[in-house]
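INFO batch 0412 | record 1 of 1 | parsing
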Amino acid sequence: MWQSLALGSASSHQWTSYSLADYLVENFIDPFLKQSFSRPFMFGVSGPVAVGKTTFAKQLLEVFKRYYAPNSVALLGLDNFIYPNKVIAERSSMDRKGFPETYDFSRVLSCLSGIIQGKSQQIPVYDQQCYDIVEGQYSKILADQSIILIEGVIVGQDAPILKKSQSIRDFLDFSIFIESQTESLLLEWYCQRFLRLAEAALKVKTGYFYQMLEPCINKHTIKSSVNALVLEKARTIWFATNKINNDQHILPTSDFFDMRVIKGEHHKIVQLFEKI
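INFO prediction complete | emitting tokens
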């Protein structure tokens, strides 16, 4: 069951990611860290494509670093564990990139297990502009972290091809699922993000988005027409891929989470529900 979570009298009249972070520290993270120093607090954030998971996670991280040593808090983005485009293409599933089968779940679970054991982890790097894993580039999750914030669409999902019963959510001490108030908002946010990435790619004339858009954009096309073409492409991809992924694989996992954050216009939190 879910109960609506109201702001305390000492708070402002509306939840923000920052006031929510304060609430989480006081009610969940601090009590955990005071009782256990053998492993980090594992915190999961998920939600549909384009709902603003990464921005939300970074805002939480910003607040957590005010409470704890900055180098003891880390963000682990699970897009870094998607297979390289070459591997996905070989399996004839580029049109399903972002679906469960395009993630290396075995590597994710191994990484999380290592973190729990206090071992440093080498993490692949995914570049959104390149739309691919950057070959030979890695980041690091250091040993002895206090908080690991794990973010991605697959946080609540089971591995599609592994026979192991273990899942990502088995490692979590607390988890949040972010939703939009309406489906049209998700499409709007996706188109806005797509347009930003496309504009950046068309300026530098390189990368995945440039290669995808260049054939249908003449150099003499005026900017308003270019934007219209880009947005048309974004909507096509949304309905052919992302909406299906959201409906079939991401939204159905919301009941696995401890808290649901509902966002409205301009990504403002309009409702907050806690599992009881």
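INFO post-check: Helices lie at 17-35, 53-67, 85-90, 105-116, 183-204, 208-213, 223-250.
INFO record closed
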